[in-house]
Amino acid sequence: MKAPKDNAASQENAPNFIHELVKREAQEGMYGGVIVTRFPPEPNGYLHIGHAKSICLNFTTAQISDRGRCHLRFDDTNPEAEDTEYVESIREDVRWLGFDWGSHEYFASDYFERLYECAVDLIRRGLAYVDSQSLEEIRAGRGDFYKPGVNGPFRERSVEENLDLFSRMRGGEFDEGAHVLRAKIDMASKDVNLRDPLMYRIRKVSHHRTGDDWCIYPMYDYAHPMSDAFEGITHSICTLEFAHHNPLYQWFVSHFDFDPIPRQIEFARLNLTFTVMSKRLLKRLVEQGHVSGWDDPRMPTIAGMRRRGYTPAALRRFAERIGVSRRDGIVDVGLLEHALREDLNATSPRTMAVLRPLKLVIENFPDGEEIELDAPYNPSDPSFGSRKLHLTRKVYIERDDFMEQPMKKWFRLAPGKEVRLRYAALVVCNRVVKNDAGDIVELRCTWDPASKGGNAADGRKVRGTIHWVSAAHAVDGEVRLYDRLFNEENPLDDAHDADFTKRINPTSLEVIDDAKLEPGLAVRAPEERVQFERLGYFVVDPDSTLERPVYNRTIQLKDSWAKLAKKA
Ligand code: ATP
Ligand code: MG
């Protein structure tokens, strides 16, 4: 098993109590020094950033020991809602994050026979029985936190009768709900989960892998610990809501002679501001068409974030930084975005694109001529290399970079003002050309031919630098400006309205279909990431073609939300 390391992150990570614990145990030589973990997704949706935290945690925990390994186990015991599309996407996402489970890919459904045999074994030992009460009767009989449970009328069935009924349940003789198999533990236990929990129920539905082989399916509380034990898992890491199930988990695995006996350890799940995370809610966003699919770049799914331009390193770094604790909380999405900016800043070539073009004509530049310029892809890091740009008589600049009546401290272009076209030249604006409606259609400028490359020969200082693209060389492209999907910190706060989709940010996507791109941007492949200077980080979308490049905005250079929040 291999997993990438993020050196940059290691110093400032929040505490991770699971790593601390496992390191101690590994030092003491427990588990023969071999840590085995598993990531156990249910294939009923795409993975999200919360799963990414769990994946990172499981793989890095296993890495603590040299021969450690992390299994990928599809927890497909629930026949409904599961789909091979999800299985594929999960594999793809874990791999993309940078983790490798080697040959250790498993399906809980592969254990159906073995789980059945273990259940028969428990029946033989008087530790499980077939109950023929209705589910309501069973529920009532289990009592609650205040009221102890009572033994039901079928609890003392003979082993023979139980074996017979259970095998006929498997054989399909009975209707759904006619019988269930229950562990025989203690109906008076203080722990409600130990009051003879269900192990099997009859479900006459096809399973995406086992088809119609089975009409009884094991419950999660039985299948999960047993699957862990079958695989030799040492640490079964799960989220806090399973803490109540821990004694039951231990009960099942300790009734067989497994070595090692797996142990469940719970940690607080990740919650993020401005995000919903549960698969159920994400599915609703997809099905109701609020987004274009599971991989819509606004989705907190791994597939969506990938399409948005997130890097695996940024996600891993984020997961390390937030640490692992047992206290539930909500993490500021700004932290995730910060990790992303850090990584993109270090890895993205700087390029130029104009999103809202305004034509600028350099009147003293002969038509048809061009000047070749050398432009570095990252001025502070020569290893990025450089490309050639061409200055021509007509160029596009950003509409926002011109102000007819400039405010104070406006260093960009305005009538009579001089500005630098990045890497190219100093230009002065002489005249503004408008149409009949009064809209600006063109700027007339002159350039200082002694400023080739961008600096004045006489040493005069020009503060403003703007980006530009040669009109003769520009490639038209589509740019999708994505922003946060929700405009409230907690979209699930139903103080005003229970429908979280009402809190979708109406400007979370703006499509610009006539952006002007520097030529090199047309030939980049999907998922290549760049910075558009002064505008943000962008990534090539899979929809992109040579004829029509499509870029997604990953994130702006600065956190505009933080600024907004400060103002408010
Ligand atoms: P959801 O509630 O989003 O549907 P789930 O827990 O049902 O998630 P599973 O496929 O069962 O999804 O989860 C696989 C693993 O990922 C489990 O170990 C689960 O605890 C973990 N996990 C799920 N959501 C989070 C989260 N927000 N933070 C950390 N781990 C998570
Ligand atoms: Mg689940």
Main features:
single chain, 568 residues, alpha/beta, Rossmann fold, Glutamyl-tRNA Synthetase, domain 3, seven-stranded mixed β-sheet, 13 helices, 25 strands, elongated, binds adenosine-5'-triphosphate
Report on the structure:
With 568 residues, the chain is of the alpha/beta class. It folds into 4 domains: 202 residues, 3-Layer(aba) Sandwich (Rossmann fold); 108 residues, Glutamyl-tRNA Synthetase, domain 3, CATH 3.90.800; 120 residues, Ribosomal Protein L25, Chain P, CATH 2.40.240; 89 residues, Ribosomal Protein L25, Chain P (Beta Barrel), CATH 2.40.240. Helix content is 25%, strand content 22%. The protein has 13 helices and 25 strands. The strands form 6 sheets. It has a 7-stranded mixed β-sheet with strand order 10-23-24-25-21-22-11, with helices on one face. The N terminus is likely disordered. Adenosine-5'-triphosphate (ATP) binds next to helix 2 and strand 8. Adenosine-5'-triphosphate binds next to helix 2 and strand 8.
What is this structure, in a nutshell?
The chain contains 13 helices and 25 strands. The protein has 568 residues and is of the alpha/beta class. Mean pLDDT is 94; it is low at 1-11.
Outline the fold blueprint:
Layout: H1 17-27, E1 36-39, H2 49-63, E2 69-74, H3 84-97, E3 105-107, H4 112-124, E4 128-131, H5 135-142, H6 159-171, E5 180-183, E6 198-202, E7 216-218, H7 220-230, E8 235-239, H8 246-254, E9 263-267, H9 279-287, H10 302-308, H11 312-322, H12 333-347, E10 350-351, E11 353-354, E12 357-362, E13 371-376, E14 386-391, E15 394-398, E16 418-421, E17 425-434, E18 440-447, E19 465-466, E20 468-470, E21 475-482, E22 509-517, E23 529-532, E24 536-540, E25 550-555, H13 560-567
Parallel strand pairs: 1-2, 2-3, 8-9, 10-23, 12-18, 16-19, 21-25
Antiparallel strand pairs: 4-5, 5-6, 6-7, 11-22, 12-15, 13-14, 15-20, 16-17, 17-18, 21-22, 23-24, 24-25
Helix pairs in contact: 2-11, 7-8, 11-12
This protein binds adenosine-5'-triphosphate and magnesium ion.
